[in-house]
Amino acid sequence: MPRVKRTPEARREAKKSHTANALAKSREELSDSYIRRLIVVERGYKPGDPITPERIEAKRQGIADKRARRKARKTRKPKPAPRVRRDEEQLDLFNPSSEITAMTASQHDQAYPNRPTHPAFPNQTTDGSDKDAGMSLLAYFMAHAPAEPQPWFKPEPDEPEPMPYIDGSDAPRPERYTSADATIPNRANHAHVDWKRRLDRARYVQWPRAWALAQIEQLNK
């Protein structure tokens, strides 16, 4: 059979009668005769011992205390509030409503230590921001220059190797240019090869400086 939904009035009445029943039951449980029976069966009672009203009252109080303790144990403790994650948005220095402004100075120093460190044990930052502190503006922009737009300042590819050695041809022997000397550091290379590399590199590394100067020009406008 489908369950009939009770009206709010009926629900209220049922709750009242339930409460009244529970109260009556608890009073009946803690009546004098019930407590007297408990005293008789408890350890240490000898037949013929007088059961005084004070003893009955003490027993009743003990039962009530025990119930209260059990009830307190059953009630759940409120969950602690979830910890606020300290992400970049909340730790924004320029946002006056952020969490960082609520810190005391000592808390701030603990969270963001800015002490001078020994060069062997630098502050552990992954983005290298600790190294930006004493930089000039030009050095800062050069260090943070984006990747070079590739067609510019790209070193030219090496000149094609001369033709392989053929008996009777005038082509120079390839060993003169392609030798182990070219790959070994600090070994003397042919002067013009070395100079060409230096020129290429000098042209190539102009890019961060050119970009940095352009940024500073924009700032100065």
Automatic annotation (TrEMBL):
Biased segments, Polar residues type: 95-109
Task: List the biased-composition ranges (Basic and acidic residues).
Answer: 1-12, 45-66
**Which residues lie within the region annotated Disordered?**
1-27, 45-132, 149-185
What species is given as this protein's source?
Pseudomonas lutea
Q: Where is the composition biased (Basic residues)?
A: 67-83
| Recorded superkingdom | Bacteria
Q: What is this protein called?
A: Uncharacterized protein
